[in-house]
Amino acid sequence: MHSSNFDAILSQVRDFSTKAENIEALQQFTVSLIAEKLPHYNWVGFYMLDPADPAMLVLGPFCGAATPHVRIQVTQGICGAAVAQEQTVVVDDVTSDPRYLACSLETRSEIVVPIRAGGKVVGEIDIDSHARAAFQPEDRSFLEECAALIGAYIERTEAKG
Ligand code: SME
C-alpha cells in the first residue's frame, strides 16, 4: 500500500547520504522525511550505542512526543531487545509485551531495527504507531533498508577518520 512512498523515501535518504555533513544531519533528515510521509508512524527516532558505554543506548534525532527514555540499557525495553538479539523486533500490541517501556499512552505497536556498521550493531531506528499491528513485512523491509543506508554512511565516514 505504501510501497511507492517507501521507494521515494529511500531514494531521498540515499541521495542525502552522499552529501550529509555528519551523521546527525542524515538522521535528522531521515526522521523528518519519514514522519512527514508516513503519518501513522507517530514517533520516529534513533537510539545509538554510547561509544563510552556500549551497554547503553542514547536518544538521537527524533520526531514525535518527548520521551522520558533518553538513555536505555541494552537489557531493557524493546529497544534493548533489538540490540541484544541483533535483529529487528516487531511488537503488534505493546500493552501485552512486558519488555515495553512506555513513551506515549497512545502507542499500540512498535518496531525497532538495528543499524550495523563494520559488522557490529551501533544503534537502531525505533518507530511507534498509535495503530495496533501497524508494522507489516513491507514496513520491516523498508526500515531495514533505511538502517542499511545509515550504517553505510557511518562506515564511509569512519573510514575517512
Ligand atoms: N518503547 C521503547 C522505548 C523508547 S520510546 O518508545 C521512544 C522500548 O520499549 O524500548
How would you describe the overall organization of this protein?
- With 161 residues, this protein is of the alpha+beta class.
- 39% of the residues lie in helices and 27% in strands.
- The chain has helices at 3-17, 23-37, 77-85, 137-160, and strands at 43-50, 53-63, 71-73, 89-91, 109-117, 120-129.
- A 6-stranded antiparallel sheet has the order 3-2-1-6-5-4.
- The model has no long low-confidence stretch (mean pLDDT 96).
- It binds methionine sulfoxide.
- Methionine sulfoxide (SME) binds at residues 43, 67, 69, 72, 77-79, 100-101, 103, 110, 126, 128.
Can you give me a brief rundown of this structure?
The protein is α+β, with helices and mostly antiparallel strands. It is 39% helix and 27% strand. Strands 3-2-1-6-5-4 form a six-stranded antiparallel β-sheet.
Cofactors, ions, other ligands: methionine sulfoxide
Give the total of beta strands.
Answer: 6
Question: What is the helical fraction, as a range of percent?
Answer: 25-40%
The overall pLDDT, averaged over residues, is 96
Query: What's the shape?
Result: globular
List segments where confidence is low: pLDDT < 50 over at least 5 consecutive residues. Answer: none
The largest pleated sheet is described as: 6 strands, antiparallel
Supply Rg: 15 Å
Specify the number of helices.
4
